[in-house]
Amino acid sequence: MAGMVLPPNASPFGYILPGSNANPFASLLPSSFPPGTPQHIIEAFRYSDKDGNGFIDDKELKAVLSTCDHGFSLRTIHLLMYSFTSTNTRVIGPREFVQLFTSLQQWRDVFERNDRDRNGKIDSYELQQTLQTLGYPVPPTVLNLLVLKFDKSGRNYALSYDNFIECCIVVKGLSDKFKEKETVGTGFATFTYETFLLSVLPFVVA
User: Fold this and answer.
1) pTM of this structure
2) Which end of the chain, N or C, is more open, meaning fewer C-beta atoms within 10 Å of its C-beta?
3) Rounded to whole angstroms, how far apart are CA atoms 144 and 67?
4) CA-to-CA distance for 159 and 150, rounded, in angstroms?
């Protein structure tokens, strides 16, 4: 992850190891805003960084995204933070915030284009088209499971924007983990048991 260094008592996923009372963020180094970052994004981050330490935490990120019409649950916030920092320390710096914010704008555009009936949700067919647009052609059996999992109403078989983002992060994250191990072009990958658990668990416990 650009611009951040894990503390010595952290695991590869950013969890603080048992038996340590150290401040988990003491050794993290903040990143910087990329050149050309729009001023409104810089101002949004700095407004949320109340103590000026170069980081915002999960609750601060939730608050600032809510002001930009991205009202997410804390679980979705945690998944976003993991996706853009590769750690579960649940703090995010300027560079990662810009990447996250920009991606959310793109994902909202994709969501709205595929919400053809303009009801603020996408059904299973629309979700399939959306995931294909994003480069993830999931098979029908997986698609059905995704709709059942992320339709939090449990009856509409459709995803709200928050649930859509959560779904996309999980699909993207697990697909990327698979591609890291895939023998190119075969659709097969080999994982050790530990590697498999470390690949999946961050998306389960967020």
Assistant:
1) 0.77
2) N
3) 33
4) 6
